[in-house]
Amino acid sequence: MAVAYERIAGRLRQAVRAGRWKPGDRLPPEAELAEEFGRSVPAVRVALRFLCEEGLIEKQHGRNVVRRPRIVAARTNLSHQWEKSRARAPLEERARTGGTERDTGLHADDLVFQASYRETEADEDLARAFAVPKGTPLLERRYRTRYAAESAPFGLMTSYLVRDMIAKNPDLLDETKEPWPGGSQAQLYTLGIELGRIEERVTARPPAPEEAAELELPPGTAVLVLRKTSIDVNDRIVGVSDVILPGDRTEMLFVTPLERW
To answer: Residue 214 is inside which H or E element, if any?
Structure first.
């Protein structure tokens, strides 16, 4: 049987979904809600905390406010073929749209993009991922893309390339060339590299404090951790990316075409 705070939370949730309070609206004070529901202020307080943890409402300057729904990014494995098909397209066509636009339905003008590069060396994990010796020089690339009307990015992406592999095209070492029209497969195409397959491993875990802060996650929200490995047609590992995705606004769809009998 539901306890008092669960019943209050249920009625508040129903009221929000019915449109009594819209995104950005402040809820009445706790004492007023307690009187409305015929319950104690402590019970109302627990219910509101429950809804905060659920992500339906949030605290702003000490008041409870209906949380504005964030743009959801729907990631599908079919996007890799879409990106490959565009890698050799004319610059004008590649520049019109990118992967984030495809995943969110937004336009390029709706997005704020940031990229930063630094040179590093392969630790044990990355050496194993690339099948190279520990200490191999790498280029680390950090990407953040967000909807202009929001302050949190869609994910936290860190991408790695073997430096010696890409050094013959100096533009690939220059962060000011970002965003690169056509994405990473178009970058690799400038080196004559064609991807043969992409492997993605997805796990879930609680966020680290700095991840929760940057992604502005509601309390209790998990993150999806994606390790993406790009492998060329010669079975060589040419790229490794680690992506931290917010569990409250990421949808992952896996489509597997099956051969006809």
So the answer is: helix 209-215
